[in-house]
Amino acid sequence: MLKGKTALVTGSTSGIGLGLAKALAAQGANLVMNGFGEVDAALAQVKALGVQVSYHGADMSKPHEIEAMVRHAEATFGSVDVLVNNAGIQHVARVENFPPERWDAVIAINLSSAFHASRFALPGMQARNWGRILNIASVHGLVASAEKSAYVAAKHGLVGLTKVTALENATSGVTCNAICPGWVLTPLVQKQVDAKAAALGISNEEAKRQLLAEKEPSLQFTTPEELGALAVFLCSTAADNVRGVAWNMDGGWAAQ
Ligand code: NAD
Questions:
Q1: Contact 248, 182 (CB under 8 A)
Q2: Which of these, 61, 92, 104, 114, could form a disulfide with 85 (CB 3.0-4.6 Å)?
Q3: Residue 55 annotated among the catalytic residues of the structure
Q4: Measuring from each residue's beta carbon to the nearest atom of ligand 1, which residues come in under 6 Å?
């Protein structure tokens, strides 16, 4: 379905981003990957799907590096047809204790990076009259949890940015939508599981069970594969007129 197209997925060396990169590659898209950590292993998993893969190590908190990443994608494959703004970090503390530099980092990486990547990628999409921007928000783009002020503010902001981007391109072939996962068992969430297990003196399994029970009626983690299938749908022709939605895949979390 995406053969001949190029997808740029930020934060795709791990977790959800890697799952989305694999789902888009399975549809034939060439991939530009980004992120830190186990870069070679992540690239190998996507290359194994038979598409061309390139990597750019831009730091999503730095606008000039984001521009260089988009230009690298265009120079390597000729276009950015699908932009997935996925890179994100978390910090957990009450507002009065929240370190200001952590606030700035969460806003920069989880929200401002999507603005910058979109503003650099949009002109090419508009010129070709086809494009898909997928903003990986969160159920925290729709509802709040205590001790996540920066994350909730960034994700609500990302849902707002999604709607504006969708409206500004509504008469074109460029769509923009947000995906709002509940709990997905990635390194980002494993850290919160570990913190809960340590704080309460409980096992990792019990901490996972309690984490789910607090928020997610299905008592199940959403998987990167399920999110990948939703991303593929949003890139399909069937989704040509899906514009500005914030689609939660959260086991019923936001329905409560
Ligand atoms: P993760 O920690 O497994 O992956 C995060 C990715 O972002 C990694 O590739 C990391 O290297 C990259 N990254 C972090 N800082 C970066 C920076 N400054 N520049 C470039 N890359 C950077 O996390 P994840 O759970 O897969 O989260 C991915 C996205 O999904 C995030 O935006 C997160 O908020 C969102 N999300 C996650 C969950 C969940 O339960 N895991 C739920 C809802 C939304």
A1: yes
A2: 114
A3: no
A4: 11, 13-17, 34-37, 59-61, 86-89, 109-110, 136, 138, 181, 183-184, 186-189
